[in-house]
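Subgroup meeting minutes
Present: P.N., E.W., G.H.
Scribe: E.W.

1. P.N. recapped why we're keeping a running log of single-chain structure predictions: easier to compare across weeks, and new members can see raw inputs and outputs side by side.
2. G.H. added today's entry (52 aa).
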Amino acid sequence: MTSAANDVISNEGAQRALALAREAAGGKDIRISGGGNAIQQYLNLGVVNELE
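Output recorded in log:
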């Protein structure tokens, strides 16, 4: 089994970080990590499909 991870770090806001992550993922799923504030930003953007 092989795995490739592209970590994206941005201080330009959740929307910019999401755009960079989507580009790096090349159409694959994106995993968001962070504290409550970070997760809340993505929930507010309406882009979270699954929360574990």
